[in-house]
Design a protein that fits this description.
alpha/beta; 15 helices
Length: 452
């Protein structure tokens, strides 16, 4: 047996090679990692180089655009600190938009069907998954109907989410003239980047001028419930304006990336009347900076009176966790809404450490009795954020995500009222000191599992 084990000198050699690969690839790519992530990779490469080096080469890349230092940025023409920050990342500026939020699944379904049936030239759908249920089948039937009537229909599914959709459903859409692409199929041979970087964006765009977006996947539990159970609490919206055109350009890039092609460049602009400004916010490996993470951390330090957030999963990195705690310490009323039990039990286990810290600082944490899948943040009366972005490590630092930043008073007021009413359904979180085994388990999970 001992002949198969490497000698100490061989182990040191492999450890040195693995660490050298880590240093060189990190420097060459200009990669930036959270300290806990870097420590986890370095320890793994030093102690188990034979196992961890292949994992690092497969999953270690987090960004596909090099971080470049932008030129000095002048204040945004819109005079808002968030717009100036996002402008510095090269994102499209805030523009007027007409927005409708969907308070429940019935409103969301009605608005979704309006977008589907109102498309005249092109209908682009990007979603993490489509349910293998009556609602999912109905979605695909509507898309096929539009394709048969001359609308260019394109459906982009994430590679992981696509596993839940029977292949013959997608073949029926293709037979009707629709196009289907899968973003990084899990079992494809073609090199398409690390398979742990998933596309979690949820965008439905009609003719490049109308957008339906938010947190809902296209499955029954997000709209009408499944198997006699009520639907999850979720949030979505639709809007008309240049934000829809920006989302359309993002879809074009994602579609081309899934097919290994160069994206088509579109320059469509959409003008609407109104004073309510909104801004499209893409986040993920295709952005040089962690755009959503940076906006949230900045928002925590700029908040003066109120910071409200609803999310199904709460596993923030050290930076966001510290920013939220310090905001609470200096008197900002921080309200955080979570389901008492989400559909991912590991995140429920891992979130306890951050929740204990926030509760000790004085944050108002409410645990909702039902599954809440909504993702929204409100900062004072200054801005609101709604989209597909969860407040966890995977969503903020690994996934391809998208959201819309709302600057208009009416939009911010709507989301504030919606979160306030939802908070009334929740019970206060009671922090309990962890035992030794739980504390060790939380640390291991935060260090290892959520880096992949």
């Amino acid at each position: 047996m001992s002949q198969w084990l490497p000698s100490f000198s061989q182990h040191l050699t492999w450890s040195a090679i693995a660490l050298l690969v880590y240093v060189l690839t990190t420097r060459a790519r200009g990669a930036r990692r959270a300290p806990t992530t870097a420590i986890a990779w370095v320890m793994g490469l030093a102690l188990l180089p034979y196992l961890v080096l292949p994992l690092f080469l497969a999953f270690g890349q987090r960004k596909f655009r090099a971080v470049r230092h932008p030129p000095t940025v002048s204040p945004s023409s819109h005079g808002h600190w968030a717009a100036a920050l996002l402008d510095s990342f090269g994102l499209e500026p805030p523009t007027p938009a007409r927005t409708r939020f969907h308070a429940d699944g019935a409103q969301a379904r009605e608005a979704l069907w309006e977008i589907f049936q109102g498309a005249r030239r092109r209908l682009d759908v990007c979603t993490f998954l489509i349910g293998d249920d009556a609602f999912g089948r109905e979605v695909l039937e509507v898309l096929a109907h539009q394709a048969r009537h001359g609308v260019q229909v394109r459906l982009l599914l994430d590679g992981f989410g696509a596993l839940s959709v029977p292949r013959h459903y997608l073949q029926a859409l293709e037979a009707a003239g629709g196009q289907v692409a899968v973003f990084r199929p899990l079992f494809a041979w073609r090199r398409m980047g690390p398979r742990n970087l998933r596309n979690h964006r949820k965008l439905v765009i009609a003719d490049g001028i109308r957008l339906w977006a938010g947190g809902r996947n296209l499955a029954a539990e997000y709209f009408e419930g499944r198997d006699g159970r009520p639907p999850w609490t979720d949030l979505s919206f639709d809007l008309t304006g240049a934000v829809a055109a920006a989302a359309s350009r993002q879809f074009e890039t994602d579609w081309a990336g899934a097919l290994g092609q160069q994206p088509l460049r579109t320059s469509a602009t959409v003008g609407v009347e109104g004073e309510s400004l909104a801004q499209f916010l893409p986040s993920g490996p295709d952005q040089a900076e962690d755009t959503a993470q940076a906006l949230l951390v900045d928002a925590c330090f700029r908040a003066r009176n109120r910071l409200m957030a609803v999310t199904p999963y709460f596993v923030p990195d050290d930076n966001l966790r510290t920013a939220m705690r310090l905001a609470t310490r200096r008197g900002v009323h921080v309200t955080l809404l979570l389901p008492v039990a989400s559909n991912h039990r590991l995140t429920d286990f891992a979130r306890a450490r951050a929740l204990r810290e926030l509760a000790a600082a004085g944050a108002d944490i409410r645990l909702l009795p039902q599954m809440a899948h909504a993702k929204a943040v409100v900062v004072d009366d200054a801005l609101a954020l709604c989209g597909s972005i969860n407040l966890d490590l995977r969503s903020l630092l690994l996934n391809y995500e998208s959201a819309v930043v709302f600057y208009g008073a009416a939009d911010i007021a709507w989301l504030t009222k919606w979160i306030d009413e939802l908070a009334m359904q929740g019970a206060p979180f009671v922090a309990r000191p962890p035992g030794l085994l739980r504390d060790i388990g939380e640390g291991l999970l935060l260090t290892i599992a959520f880096q992949l």
